[in-house]
Amino acid sequence: MAVRRVGARPRNLDNELPPLIPVNICSAHQQRIIVSAIFCVITAFKVYNYIHCNEAASLLGILTKWCILDASLFLGLYIFRIPWLQKSLWFWILCLILSLVVNATILQPRWIYDVGLTKYILDFLNSFYMIIRQQYIRLKGEKVRAVSKEEDILIDVVRYNSSHIVGKHSVRLLPYATAKLNPDDDKLCLQRSSSKKNPAIKLPILFNKTSPKSIRYSRLDFETGDRTMHDVYSKEIEQHRMTDVVHDGGYLEYVDIPVNQPGVYQLEEALDKDGMGIKIYKRDITIVYCPMANFILKSGPNLCIEDEIHVDLILQGVPPLNVIYERRINNYVTNMTIDSIGPEHYITPPIRSDQEAMTLASSGNYQWARDQTTEVQLNLSAEFDADYWLKVLQLQDVLNNTISYKNDQNPNVNVRFSVYTRPTASFESDTSIYVRPKQPAKIPLKLQGQEPWNVKIGYWLEEVTENDDDVNIMKPSEEFNITINDPETENTIRVQKPGMYRILSVSDSNCIGSVLAPSFKNVILAYPPTVKIDVIPIPADDCPGEVGVEVILSLTGTPPWHIEYSITSQNKEKKEYVKIEKSRHSMIIKPTASGQYEYRFFRLMDLIYREGVKIDHKFSQTVHPKPNAVFRDSTNRLLNGCVGSRIDLEVELAGTGPFTLIYEVVFNRRINAFTIADIRGSTYVLTSPPFENPGLYTVTLVKITDSKGCSQVLNSSDYVTINVKKDRPTAGFRHTHEIISFLEGSDVNLPLQLTGHAPWNISYRYHGDIEKVERESEIADPNSYLTVSEQGIYELLEVKDSFCYGRIIPEMKEVEARWLPRPSLRIAEGDAEPLPQKGHYRRRNVCEGSEDSVGLVMEGRAPWEIFYKIITSDEELTRHQTVGYTTTKIRLMTNKAGRHLYNFTSIADDVYTDPSPILLTLEQTVNAKPIAKFLSPDTIFHCVDVPFTNKDIKIQLDGVPPFSLTFEVAQESSNKMETLKIEEIYESIYNFHPSTRFAKIGNYTISLVHIVDSHGCSNTLQGPNNKISIQVTDVASIDRTFQQQIHCVGDLLIYKLQGMIPYNITREYNGEILHTISKTHTYTFGADKPGNMTITKVCHQGNQCCGSVSNLTEIIYDLPTAIVSEGKDIISDIREGDKTEIIINFIGTPPFEFTYTRSELLINEKKERKPGRVLETLTVLNIHQYQHSIFTSQQGVFQVTRVKDRYCEYPPTSGRR
């Protein structure tokens, strides 16, 4: 038998208790729904009770019922421990108190100020607290005062001290062990390395129910067929041991053996730590080099469309190999698979057919497992302008060793190349280019591709192209290359010679391209243009002389042509030009005035010679043109006029003056002819006769005669129509009998009444308070307005419409505009005293809290909006108030003492909506209320029948003395009330001596009711500082809440006290005198050590009212102790059929009895041993010795769970306190 000692593990205490109702019986969600339903029923019952109860006498009973329902709900939640609602006991007690306050407030809000009811509620809560606290101590345990010292202890720590049961004994039966190489059939392979030594991999061996001490394995070499042995000992095993695993009740252990050479590995032998052999599963594993892939790109990385792509895929591994690679063209992805890849005549491994699967057969020849290299050619055709990618995704050898390259960015398994579009080149057009002699020509190109381009040009002489039509079969006279880097700025080629040019080839930065049509361009030599001019005079028809010339032009050059010429007469030169599209052109020149004219053609331009060629061809002529007359303004032939007015018409004359002009005026079928002689000049203003009647008049030019007597009848279609209006325009103001009111600072529209034709021009005069100003305004609407911004009288002076001047209507020529008055504000007469400073007033002083207001008077148009500020010593408030009547009152702020200023800043009314600033300030002083409060403690404790002579009650007074105070003295039990009043108090701290002798037990209350200071300001006093309570009590007493006198360590000794808290308890423990203060009516001691405790005295009321105590002595015994295997954690390893001894020692008072369990022996992932489920439980009774032995041959963990001696047991039973 082997025995090992291991360190004891700490107990794992679960602080959160499970639900009282298991969730497999009723789920947590259903339990919460049930609680919600109960809460809704309780709430509905409360609402029903509240609605149907109106008598105050029954409110206390309803409050009691409501509190019982709430307490039942909260206690049930605490006991049932529902998930999500599992809270501490103190939480539910706080909820109960809160619900009590809410219930009382709902039923009768004034109850919270009722002293008697408050005491009743406090007594009820105190009793309920004591019951809950005792149950809490019984169930949960809390900190209580130790009997042996003046300290608080956690009773559960004393009661459940784990040192009373220590040690355990584990018995383990050693099973038969096995070892298995590569138990999970993992696929293992060696990584390739450029160094001589390959990286090692881990070869797993699984040991079942044992731990190895030594391991022997063999390796078969692929090349030589030799088998070598390798030993691994305990030191190396510990380095490569994995975490122990408990699996299906067995103990598993993994050991990883590092290997770095290919071969066939087999486990030969393994021994455990006792030197016993371990059963070996006969199996082997073949380890080879991991397969590897590599791309070799034989083509360049940059290709052109229609090129062939040549890529070699180099594979290394044990054939046959399977490869999956990805071919990507831009975003289009295709996965390709190639199976059974291997070199020529490679050796195929032997295959054995099983029912389960096809597996490699084990044979002595492993030549097939040698590492080999295979080359695969991948040829592609570049069909698109795109980026091509080839990437190896996965490679697998014959042993199913799989290498994934999906996330591998190694360039050896990723290859990328770009395919570009081939460039093109052509001329922009096939139109011939004309060029001047000895000047270069620019031929524009049209290129596509990626810059730079290299273009090859062929040139044929002009003589060759003229003699032979087929240039395609002729060799060019000359070839040259050009390079173009930027197609935007270098898209032309410059040539010097005329002839035929052809694009022979083109290439860009990536590819050789093709030549598109048009690819030919003719360059023709262009000579300066010439012109032949023929002149033919044009005679007059009926008059002597010539009226102009006809010029015939014959041109050579490249159209279009432009020819410039000048016409000179009387030393005045006029230049003209004409555009000509054809090589022969005729033009007519007819001057409008007579005289000697010289015509000179001086410049000729064509398409090539845009700057022009100088020519000099001139001739002279004497011109006598026929006279002519037309109205100058040919667009406006309809004019308007008024009766009695005249119209001026401007006429343009042509010919040799002076002229005689005949015109006609047609009105109502009457024609009046007028003749005007001796008109000199080229223009004349014709003034019509006055129009006497309204209607349409037509003025027509009839005939003109020049100085040579040559006359011409004028065109009858050249006439002017005049519409003569009957009425002249008028102007006046509308509503002249009213004064127009408007807001100061805004504009006002003065209504006008106009007749005539728009637009009108109005002149008016403004009569202000100081000045008179004349102004003008243009108006387009007859019912429009004259917009002004100043107040005063406005007078119309003159009106003119679009035709003529009119008149002002006398009775409508003036109107008056006035500003509306702005709103104002003042304080009502007698409400405040005016101060010397303008706009400042003072209101009489008032006491804090009293009502006060001031009257205001407004002027303007209702409603008004008043804006003002209230300024105190510590804050500034902004207020505004809307008023509908001319008088109002505003409430003054008297809730705060001090000097208050009311600054009225602005006012607005219904007309002036934007507030207008005003200056008005009111000040007032608010005197503070007097205050009185007790400085003594809230509660004064007093014993019954003791004179009240040595305790002063201090009162603090704030205000202006002298003060007057009113007191009330009340006894709660008798409802008697005594009122006291004290006058002329000048002190700020007043000592109050009650003369009442407190002869009865109970509570007395002294209240400060009322105070008045010298200003007459009074204050009704309320609040906690205005009351003190005097509690008169009897002597204190104490008694047990239990019967027995013999106790064990960990018991709770609970005593009930009578009197007034706090209590002073005196006790004697093993001869030592100790003192304790209790703030409740029950007090609990915790028995922390064995011994004798006697309570000797209990007092209250500041240790004054003491009571005598007798027969309160408690005897306390220690808890018994059981020690298993000397208190250690012992593990005994035995074989089947052997026995082991378990020794248990006791401490305490015989006879003893104990209970022990045998549990499953479990091993966790950390190889720690711990007990599992309990297999059996046994109890041994009547042991009179201090040592006991147990013999067993069964496996398990033996632990003592309970021990008991004559007086006590551990752990304590639930029935003990």
Automatic annotation (TrEMBL):
Which residue intervals define the domain Nucleoporin POM152 immunoglobulin-like in the entry? 527-629, 847-927
**Residues in domain Nucleoporin POM152 first Ig-like?**
178-287
Residue intervals of the Nucleoporin POM152 N-terminal transmembrane domain: 28-106
Boundaries of every Nucleoporin POM152 Ig-like domain copy: 422-519, 728-811
Which GO biological process entries does UniProt record here?
nuclear pore organization; protein import into nucleus
Segments passing through the bilayer: 33-51, 57-80, 89-107
Give a Gene Ontology cellular component term annotated to this protein.
nuclear pore transmembrane ring
Q: Name one GO molecular function term.
A: structural constituent of nuclear pore
Signal sequence, renumbered to the chain: none
**Which keywords describe this protein according to UniProt?**
Membrane, Transmembrane, Transmembrane helix
Q: Which domain of life is it from?
A: Eukaryota
Residue stretches making up the Nucleoporin POM152 ninth Ig-like domain: 1038-1115
Task: Quote the protein name from its UniProt record.
Answer: Nucleoporin Pom152
